[in-house]
Design a protein that fits this description.
This protein is α/β, with parallel strands linked by helices and about 230 residues long. The chain is built from seven helices and ten strands. The chain is about 30% helix and about 25% strand. α4 runs parallel beside α5. The structure holds adenosine-5'-triphosphate. GO terms for molecular function: ATP binding; ATP hydrolysis activity.
Length: about 230
């Protein structure tokens, strides 16, 4: 009797072969990116290297020359439209400005008690409208709402921007807990935070992605000019 090894498929979302050219410039030259349940994938790159474009192509809201998206090997079109599949934090403000925070939480079905357990000080925002919040608080609420939402994958474009260090530290802990339930891709220029929380880290350069093993690689590939001491 032969014993076939049991293959366990880890929930994954893959955007393969992304090509994007604009105004005769090739921005992405056949790049692949993937999110796996249980992992954080980090994406670094200089301004204009195509990080946001990749996330939008994967989400399905940007039309690019080529991009094939698969969920566990099955091709999907318009990933954003599939209930419970994936959510995406754009670089720009995400939540509707006129909405009260408490109403936004209700709309997204967020677990307010759980959020306040992690960030008790943000309770003061609940009755405020989104456009009355500081930039950092608006970003924090947006990240929390998407991270805690019941989707299999979450794509976060610059989630740490404007957020104060003490909240970034807590957010990183929360991301490490949430990745047990979902696959997460994060792009941010705060490379130290990405180095710390990513299970796989890539650098976008010349339209391709380079696998990053450690900080030295970031110098080698010209993302950092030198290694700062810790
Ligand atoms: N609609 C468009 N028209 C012209 N150029 C575009 C368009 N969309 C994207 N680009 C260009 O594509 C390149 C990649 O942009 P993208 O926003 O993906 O970069 P990024 O790596 O996210 O940059 P940053 O770190 O500055 O956020 C940029 O040079 C941008 O100017």
């Amino acid at each position: 009797m032969s014993h076939k090894p049991v293959e366990i498929m880890i929930d994954n979302l893959v955007a393969e072969n992304i090509f994007f050219s604009v105004m005769q410039r090739d921005i992405l030259k056949g790049v692949t990116i993937r999110a796996d349940k249980g992992k954080v994938t980090g994406l670094l790159g200089r301004n204009g290297s195509g990080k946001s474009t990749m996330l939008q192509a994967m989400f399905g809201t940007l039309s690019v020359q080529e991009c094939n998206v698969f969920v566990n090997g099955q091709m999907v079109k318009n990933a954003y439209g599939k209930a419970g599949l994936v959510n995406y934090l754009p670089r720009k403000p995400y939540l509707p400005g006129r909405l009260k925070v408490a109403d936004a939480l209700k709309q997204f079905g967020s677990d307010v008690a759980y959020i306040l357990l992690w960030f008790p000080e943000v309770e003061e925002d609940l009755e405020k409208r989104i456009n009355e919040l500081s930039g950092g608080r608006e970003r924090l609420w947006s990240v929390l709402i998407l991270l805690l939402a019941n989707t299999r994958f979450t794509l976060l474009d610059e989630p740490f921007t404007h957020i104060m260090p003490i909240h970034i530290e807590r957010l990183k802990e929360l991301i490490s807990i949430k990745k047990v339930d979902k696959g997460i891709i994060i792009t941010d220029h705060m490379y130290r935070h990405l180095l710390e929380i990513s299970n796989s880290l890539y650098l976008m350069k010349d339209g391709k992605s380079i696998y990053i093993r450690d900080k030295q690689d970031l110098v080698l590939h010209g993302y950092l000019s030198f290694l700062e001491s810790d």
